[in-house]
Design a protein that fits this description.
four-stranded antiparallel beta sheet, two-stranded parallel sheet, 6 strands, about 10% helix, binds zinc ion
Length: about 90
């Protein structure tokens, strides 16, 4: 999927439309000691019946998240592209 490198989008801190630079959001390194990860690990112990978090269905495509940086105030906004896309986001010049 193709997406422009620069778009005119609304900036809440400028309270106006400004030019934004667009980048794909990157997922950070997972923290093994985060509260949710510890709770999930606890739920997997023992002889549980149904286990939450075990995937049975593989979803097609990925939800693409973009990070837009305002060219005026340099603040960042996030935007999720519609539904799921099967191909990676490419940024046109
Ligand atoms: Zn701004």
């Amino acid at each position: 999927m193709k997406f422009p490198k620069e778009i005119n989008a609304f900036c809440p801190s400028c309270n106006a439309h400004q030019k934004h630079k667009v980048k794909a959001a990157s997922k950070g390194r997972p923290r093994t000691l985060a509260a949710g990860n510890r709770a999930h690990k606890r739920s997997l112990t023992g002889h549980g019946s149904k286990r939450a978090g075990e995937k049975t269905v593989r979803k097609q495509g990925k939800r693409q998240k973009l990070v837009m940086t305002c060219s005026k105030c340099k603040k960042k906004q996030e935007r999720v592209l519609r539904g799921r896309t099967t191909k990676k986001v490419e940024f046109k010049t």
